[in-house]
Amino acid sequence: MLTLYGETLWESPYVYSVFVALREKGLAFDLKELDLQAGEQRQQPFAERSMVAKVPALDHDGFWLTESLAIVEYLDDRFPSPEHPPVLPYGIEERARARQLAGVLRSGLPHLVAERPTSSIVFDPMRTPLGDAAKADAAKLINMVERLLPSDSTALFMHWTFIDAEVALALHRLLASGDPVPARVRAYAEAIWQRPSVRAYIEHERPRS
Fold first, then answer.
1. Predicted pLDDT of residue 152
2. How open is the CA angle 3-202-149, to the nearest 5 degrees?
3. Of 112, 138, 141, the residue nearest 126 (C-alpha)
4. Boundary residue ending a domain (85, 108, 133)
5. In a domain, 209, yes or no
6. What is the domain count for the chain?
């Protein structure tokens, strides 16, 4: 049995990544929500079992794992193709590139994330202009997509991967608030945004933050 521990506001980009991967692989899973504002992630037995008292956390028949990238890679290894669609690229270089992008999205765009938080996508858009540092982050993100995205493609690699979902979310930090995004990059982000797995997360009923 697979159980994904998420959060009640449904605005974590890391829970989003694991949720989408589970749906894309066609895996049945239970979902348990923790109220992070109330500190439920620090209560037992979750805190002990997760080791780091944070979400997302995956419980697979008693094997507990945290950190979204580690979980996604575990799912791809544990439930491989062809029985389950892959969510990572096939080749060594492509997998390395996907991990590179995941690293940038998690720690390399701090000013963009601060000024365009995930709440601005799922709740209310931001109306204030981007500062210079956030603009630099946005330019970095767009440049990566423009360099890696093949012409007339809706995937960064030979097939759709989890990093497409993560990059699309990052781009929607800009799109949701009306910040400029080049047409080809916008088309890519909007195409990924329509995948059923992504829509299931974005359209999930959530309380106001």
1. 81
2. 100
3. 112
4. 85
5. no
6. 2
What are the tokens at 135? Answer: 């603009």
**pLDDT (tens digit, 9 = 90+) per residue, 84-143?**
999 999 999 999 999 999 999 999 999 999 999 999 999 999 999 999 999 999 999 999
- Under 8 Å between Cβ of 58 and 4: yes
What CATH number does residue 40 fall under?
Answer: 3.40.30.10
Task: Assign 3-class secondary structure to 94-110.
Answer: HHHHHHHHHHHHHHCCH
Q: Residues 65, 103: one domain?
A: no
Asked whether residue 76 falls in the same domain as residue 104, the answer is no
Supply the range of the domain harboring residue 172: 92-195
Tokens of 130: 């981007």
Cα–Cα dist 105/77, whole Å: 22
Helical spans, DSSP H, in the chain: 13-24, 46-50, 68-78, 92-107, 110-115, 119-122, 132-148, 162-175, 183-193, 196-202
Domain boundary among 54, 85, 116: 85
Structure-block tokens of residue 177: 């608030």
Q: Which residues pair with 64 in a beta bridge?
A: 59
Task: Give 79's contacts (C-beta < 8 A, 6+ positions apart).
Answer: 25, 27
Distance, in Å, from the CA atom of 186 to the CA atom of 174, rounded to the nearest integer, reads: 10
Residue 198, CA distances (Å) to 34, 162, 187, 192 in order: 21, 10, 16, 8
Q: What CATH code is carried by the domain that includes residue 173?
A: 1.20.1050.10
